[in-house]
Specification:
Strand order of the largest sheet of chain A: 1-2
CATH architecture of the largest domain in chain A: Orthogonal Bundle
Helix content of chain A: 40-55%
Order of helices and strands of chain A: HHHHHHHHEEHHH
Number of helices of chain B: 7
Shape of chain B: elongated
Mean pLDDT of chain A: 84
CATH topology of the largest domain in chain A: Cytochrome Bc1 Complex, Chain D, domain 2
CATH superfamily of the largest domain in chain A: Cytochrome c-like domain
Low-confidence stretches of chain B: 1-12
Number of strands of chain A: 2
Number of helices of chain A: 11
Number of domains of chain A: 2
Strand content of chain A: under 5%
Oligomer: heterodimer
CATH class of the largest domain in chain A: Mainly Alpha
Structural class of chain B: alpha+beta
CATH topology of one domain in chain B: Rieske Iron-sulfur Protein
């Protein structure tokens, strides 16, 4: 996640260091609240005014409120330690507080923002499914159960993801996820994808147990461990003396 | 006991044995039958000599219950199969239990039937110990000779010497049938893949092994546009920094399986990553790859050089492209060099240019600004017999 922020922030900082150095921005109410929270919990790694600390945390100038909201509401930030990738955990801040921090970071350097509301679902689930299979399924798998990447990194399962989190992830490309900007997937297409994923998650597995919906890996494991063991005991019982 | 002595013993017993002897019980006949098959029943006693004990009744009751349950679950299966109100909807209602419940009822019915049958055999049938001699070693010489002559006799009976026409006819019929079995092996050698590709822009024949949908041909001289799966062209601003997009050749059927070797990943690198890649390309001297990128945009074949799977898992911070089939990893900022897994070749790079309307096309920009259409300059996908180039 640190790296995720580093990416956007790093680029921006590379050619616009003067923006951050041009003095205190004028903050409105929410951003002021956000600044207080930021100075309590984020400043040790991301530095004064979100300018980043070499070797600890990237600059947040230009990452936008969408990235902040994603990282904070999923509990990935504040990070507890440096590791292969920051994982989802119980959030430290409420959604409202996350939006306040986001407002502060937005005031500092701009960047992508989320639309209003918690229901970001389109009406065209079929189109969303098509887009999901083309753009998302290679890493998050067809059932949105996630999958492995290199060196301990992984594409997480979308089981717990909310509409806003998915929208923010597509918009900002957290960590190693590619960015799907509004020119590539329009806001309407993003909403269709979210509608598809949320419908798929709410859908009962018509074939019985889904077993994580990651296909042959979990199914093979269950067949081998449960099925084979049952068969072995069945043969012992059939052949055993009564 | 060998076969011959066994036959002799059986024959001898046959003379003494009278199947119509009224003193013999049915079991005596069963035992004699088994004996003639080389099986000796040495111990045989009913499981419950006194009928109607409490234990026997208990077993009978539980068996009866099992059979009733078999019928109950089977009936439930049929009723549910006919009457369940299944319909497709995107909601999550009880109707979705149709398949699991069918499986459960039929599964329980069959499992109980199996358990009942085994229980019957184990708990109620008489206890029995039978001994059978094992037939070891080769047959003796007499037996071998008899069998051999029997087989030769079958050949004589066919009478091929008397009726040679039949032999020839059978041969004429069977030979092509043999060719059918060999067809998959030999068939691949009939068409020369070096001349069956599309006609190139200059009218030359081409090889299907070295051409893709991006290759400029007589029918599609190019420059061929990069398109989405719906055929729309792509501008640079369509892919954000740190973003990637799967693109297809903008020719008829370009996103179909006819050009399954052509899907390409268009990547928008960050400034420092693009600089690292450009340095690699200039240092390579491995062919005309310098200038294949357009600013911070690069395009690499999506077909893994190991086994041809789509390598499409792109990590935008580490710039590693993963293939999900066998975990090959390609470092994009090192000109897609394989850094992990079984792949041994770099992913081929597609030369990128912008046409006058601002859309991406596959081609090499010349010094005077004109675009020479070009597909991949090395074959995409896994190796074939005449390829020997390895990673550098």
């Amino acid at each position: 996640m640190i790296a995720a922020l580093a990416l956007v922030g790093g680029i921006y900082a590379a050619f616009a260091p003067s923006t951050a150095a041009s003095g205190e921005p004028v903050l409105d109410g929410a951003a002021k609240q956000g600044q207080l929270l930021y100075n309590d919990s984020c400043i040790s790694c991301h530095g004064n005014n979100g300018q980043g600390v070499e070797g600890r945390g990237p600059s947040l100038i230009g990452v936008g409120s969408a990235a902040v909201e994603f990282q904070v509401t999923t509990g990935r930030m504040p990070a507890t330690r440096q590791e292969a990738q920051a994982e989802r955990k119980t959030p430290v801040f409420t959604d409202e507080q996350a939006q306040e921090i986001g407002a502060y970071i937005q005031a500092l350097g701009g960047g992508p923002q989320l639309p209003e509301g918690t229901d970001l679902r389109g009406d065209n689930i079929a189109a969303g499914g098509e887009l999901f299979r083309v753009n998302c399924s290679s890493c998050h798998s067809f059932g949105a159960g996630g999958g492995a990447l290199s060196s301990g990194k992984f594409a997480p399962s979308l089981d717990e993801s909310t509409d806003r989190e998915m929208y923010a992830a597509m918009l900002t490309g957290p960590q190693n996820m590619p960015v799907f900007g509004d020119n590539q997937l329009s806001p309407q297409e993003k909403r269709d994808i979210i509608a598809y994923v949320q419908n798929m998650k709410a859908h009962a597995d018509q074939g019985g147990l889904g077993i994580g919906r990651i296909g042959p890996v979990s199914e093979g494991l269950v067949i081998f461990l449960v099925g084979m063991v049952v068969l072995i005991f069945a043969t012992l019982w059939i052949a055993g003396k009564s | 006991m060998t076969d011959t002595t066994h036959h002799a013993a059986g024959h001898a017993a046959d003379e003494e044995f009278d199947a119509d002897d009224p003193r013999m019980t049915r079991f005596d006949l069963v035992r004699e039958g088994a004996r003639r098959d080389g099986v000796e029943i040495v111990h045989y006693e009913p499981r419950f000599p006194v009928p109607g004990t409490r234990r026997e009744k208990r077993i009978v009751r539980s068996l009866a219950l099992m059979f009733l349950l078999v019928g109950l679950f089977a009936t439930a299966f049929v009723v549910i199969y006919i009457a369940w109100p299944w319909h497709y909807s995107i909601s999550n209602d009880n109707a979705k239990w149709f398949t699991p419940i069918l499986g459960l009822t039929l599964g329980l019915s069959l499992a109980l039937l199996g358990v009942a049958m085994i229980t019957w055999g184990k708990k109620l049938l008489p206890e029995e110990i039978a001994v059978q001699d094992r037939h070891d070693g080769p047959s003796d010489s007499t037996e071998a000779k008899l069998t051999g002559q029997t087989i030769l006799n079958m050949g004589d009976e066919l009478g091929l010497k008397r009726r040679p026409v039949l032999g020839l006819a059978a041969l004429a019929g069977l030979a092509p049938l043999g060719a059918v079995a060999a067809a998959p092996i030999i068939g691949g050698l009939i068409k020369d893949p070096h001349t069956t590709g599309p006609k190139l822009a200059d009218g030359q024949k081409s090889s299907i092994l070295t051409t893709t949908g991006w290759t400029p041909t007589e029918a599609n001289p190019g420059p061929i546009a990069l398109t989405r799966e719906d055929g729309t062209k792509i501008r640079p601003e369509d892919v954000s920094v740190g973003g990637q997009m799967t693109v297809f050749p903008g020719i008829p059927g370009g996103a179909s399986n006819e050009y399954a070797d052509s899907p390409t990943l268009l990547i928008h690198l960050r400034d420092d990553d693009a600089a690292a890649l450009e340095a690699t390309l200039i240092n390579e001297n491995k062919g005309p790859v310098e200038g294949f990128n357009w600013k911070n945009y690069v395009a690499y074949s999506k077909i893994c050089t190991h086994a041809g799977c789509p390598a499409s898992l792109y990590e935008q911070q580490t710039n590693i492209l993963l293939c999900p089939c066998h975990q090959s990893q390609f470092k994009i900022t090192n000109n897609a060099r394989p850094i992990f897994g079984p792949a041994t070749r770099r992913l081929p790079m597609l030369p990128l240019a912008l046409d006058p309307e601002g859309f991406f096309v596959a081609g090499i920009v010349q010094k005077d600004g004109s675009i020479v259409p070009s597909g991949y300059t090395v074959p995409v996908g896994p190796g074939f017999w005449e390829r020997s180039d390895k990673i550098s």
